[in-house]
Each structure stands twice: as structure tokens, then as C-alpha cells.
């Protein structure tokens, strides 16, 4: 995958000028696919429960109408899932500065998370089969001293996740733990 000349990787951003970075376009596709699947399954199960209940309470012989209603309900659920996945991607951003990694999510209920460099314990990168297909990775930043001990952010380009991992590793831990 090639990046546009305007695209800036995490390692190239100087700390003084760190700007908010949007998640890449393949992350939008993945968010919409996962939203569609979740919405379809949830709406299908809900439609089956409601359709079964209607058939038990008031059976008038319209089995095909009930099945058609359940399928329409499931397709609407998938469409809602696509829309929610797109919105989740559109309103997510990150930046790396001298303080640490900041992640911003949401529009109405905005959530900003700052992981100070001093709190970073270790970092993991996960790449599932679908993420590998899109060239994406999930960065997991394990922190010290908090109840919610890890920040899990999917949707990074693989190269950006590796660059962030390398930039966030504390200098004292770069000796590969060799004594």
C-alpha cells in the first residue's frame, strides 16, 4: 500500500508540532464491516425473538410475512451498524507528543485518553487475519497504576503501530532485558 505525499507517519512528527492524526481509510472499511456484522446478527436475533413471540400470541398463518419482516429488520440493523462503524472511525484520532500518546474518540460524548510515557509498562501489537488483509494493526499500551490497565486502539496502519511502539518504549527498557 502506498501513502500519499501528505501522509505523515508517527515517527516523522516532531514532538513540538504533533498534530492529531486521523485513522487511515482502510480502518473505516474494517469498522463498517464489523459494524454491519454486529448490527445484522443483533437485529436478526431480536427479529427472530419478536417474530416467534408474534407467531405464538397471534398466529394467522403468515409465516412468510414474518420471515420477510425478520430479514428486513436484520438488513436495517446491518445498515445501522455500517453507519455507526463509519462514525466511530470518522471521530477517532491520535497524536504522539512529548507527554505521550493521546487518543480522542467520539463527537457528542468525546473521550480523550492520555497515556504518559512514564506510565507505559509494555506494548503489544495484534494483527488478526482481517486486519492483516487491510494492512492494519491494533496497538495495546499496557500502563502502570490504573484500574483500566491498557489502552487498546485498533485501526493503525501496520507501519504506524510499529513506529508508535518503538517511540513509546521507555529508554530504560531498550536494552532487551539483558543482564
Q: In brief, what are we looking at here?
A:
By secondary structure, the protein is α+β, with helices and mostly antiparallel strands. 44% of the residues lie in helices and 23% in strands.
Report on the biggest sheet: 4 strands, antiparallel
Q: Total number of helical segments?
A: 4
Residue-averaged pLDDT: 82
Largest sheet strand order: 1-2-3-4
How would you name the oligomeric state of the polypeptide chains in this document? single chain
Domain YdbS-like PH: 89-147
Pfam families: bPH_2
Transmembrane segments: 30-52, 64-86
Protein name: YdbS-like PH domain-containing protein
How would you describe this structure in keywords?
alpha+beta; 7 strands; 44% helix; elongated; disordered N terminus; three-stranded antiparallel sheet; 179 residues
Topology:
Layout: E1 21-22, H1 25-57, H2 63-90, E2 92-96, E3 100-105, E4 111-116, E5 120-126, H3 129-134, E6 136-143, E7 150-157, H4 158-168
Antiparallel strand pairs: 1-2, 2-3, 3-4, 5-6, 6-7
Helix pairs in contact: 1-2
Keywords: Membrane, Transmembrane, Transmembrane helix
Pfam families: bPH_2
Domain YdbS-like PH: 89-147
Folded structure, characterized:
There is one protein chain. The chain has 179 residues and is of the alpha+beta class. The chain has two domains: 29-88; 93-170. The protein contains four helices and seven strands; from the N terminus they run βααββββαββα. Helix 1 (25-57) runs antiparallel to helix 2 (63-90). The radius of gyration is 22 Å and the shape is elongated. The two termini are 40 Å apart. It holds the Pfam family bPH_2. The chain crosses the membrane at residues 30-52, 64-86.
Amino acid at each position: 500500500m502506498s501513502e500519499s505525499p501528505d501522509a505523515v507517519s508517527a515517527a516523522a512528527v516532531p514532538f513540538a508540532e504533533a498534530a492529531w492524526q486521523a485513522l487511515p481509510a482502510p480502518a473505516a472499511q474494517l469498522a463498517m464491516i464489523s459494524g454491519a456484522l454486529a448490527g445484522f446478527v443483533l437485529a436478526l436475533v431480536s427479529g427472530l425473538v419478536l417474530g416467534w413471540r408474534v407467531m405464538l400470541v397471534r398466529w394467522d398463518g403468515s409465516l412468510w410475512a414474518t420471515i420477510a419482516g425478520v430479514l428486513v429488520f436484520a438488513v436495517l440493523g446491518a445498515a445501522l451498524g455500517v453507519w455507526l462503524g463509519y462514525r466511530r472511525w470518522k471521530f477517532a484520532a491520535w497524536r504522539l507528543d512529548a507527554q505521550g500518546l493521546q487518543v480522542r474518540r467520539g463527537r457528542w460524548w468525546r473521550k480523550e485518553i492520555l497515556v504518559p510515557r512514564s506510565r507505559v509498562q509494555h506494548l503489544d501489537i495484534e494483527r488478526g487475519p482481517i486486519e492483516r488483509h487491510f494492512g492494519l494493526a491494533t496497538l495495546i499500551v499496557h500502563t502502570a497504576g490504573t484500574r483500566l490497565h491498557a489502552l487498546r486502539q485498533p485501526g493503525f496502519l501496520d507501519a504506524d503501530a510499529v513506529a508508535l511502539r518503538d517511540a513509546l518504549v521507555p529508554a530504560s527498557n531498550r536494552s532487551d532485558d539483558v543482564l
